[in-house]
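I am still getting used to backbone structure tokens and would like to learn alongside you. To get us started, please write out a protein record for me. Start from the sequence, derive the backbone structure tokens from it, and show both lines together. Once you have written the record down, we can walk along the chain together:
***
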Amino acid sequence: MSSTLHVEVVQKRGSQANKDFIKDVVHSYLANFVSITPGVTIKNNEFEDNLALKDHIESITCCDEEHNTEVGVTECEFVYHVFKFDIFGVETDTMTDAASGEEIAAADIWALPTEEFHGLWESLIYDSKLKEDTLRFVETAFEFADRRVDSNVISWNRVVLLHGPPGTGKTSFCRALAQKLAIRLNDKFPRARLLEINAHGLFSKWFSESGKLVAKLFDRIREIVEDQSLLACVLVDEIESLAHARRAALSGLEPSDSIRAVNAILTQLDRLKRHPNALVLTTSNVTGAIDVAFVDRADIKRRVGPPSERAAYEILRGCCSEMMARGVVAPREQLFALRILEASRFADTEGSHASLRLWAVAREAAAAQVSGRALRRLPFLARALHTCGEPPLAQFIDALQAALRQQLSDAKDLEDDSLPTHCK
């Protein structure tokens, strides 16, 4: 039985070729391969003498969360997704509080797919089925809508909640998911938008008319979702701002307008479920502070924590590969994929030594629960503070470890300085 492999093809903006032609050209090209590694991207400068590919295609990415090893070309069925980047980019919706005269950036509206998010999904690495499970959830939600399953009998709201400490990639994941859906569901929804709501700003103490701001914002959102041919992904970052505003209002610390605003946004989110083309994505940095009324509305709730040893290794391996590709690090060795490293299927080479050394750094980072954001900052710090010139990979990995230990030491100093004197 053949497996499915999704192939995403970025068509050049100036290309006038139809999608069937693009699919045929790409299929003929991939048929020359014996096997394909999911996650690999083939760029325009790698197409050699294939003029059809060079003239019409920016890149080809073979991606599927169900495969983590090479798959034989004859053993899989290709599903092609051909798209161009949307030229409209992002616009910011601003609103003015009538009482204070202050202006707030209420939402950023992204036209998808955008070049800004290209490759973001592939760059996010988790030692769990977060990507696969979330994609399946969304696909099932839209399938239920297509089949007109009675939501009074079977409840689903098309609401995703990601929670966990800062720096773990929750917002990036939501953006990447919206981009992925814009590509995968292009036949169903020819256009897509990601609306990033600034929840923290809406409930800021400086805005006394939050309820009216919420109403204005959702009037704008409704204008967008009324177009049934458009996929609308609504991202609410820092959803715990709802709970904070509700508690503050009930305790008398904030005007009653705050709780009206909280109730208003919950009501507006409920109304979005009437639109089969709408999906709500939310994040929270403080799990215990999420509004209980909202938690009950979320269909899928996933914790996104700091990278595990395995995830940290793959993140750092990708960072080192990028540094070598850009000529910052001497590109002489190859770092092994984790599955090869764990199976000890490699010769005693400089590359194997470097891979084992990087694995040690990854384990140290995971033990300290270093966030994904901090991990991706290490190559910059290593280059800036702990090495110079064009160092060989082994030397650069030593610099990575030095940067990691320096960052942990700095964090400890900062923590100590924040303690009251009598606690030191």
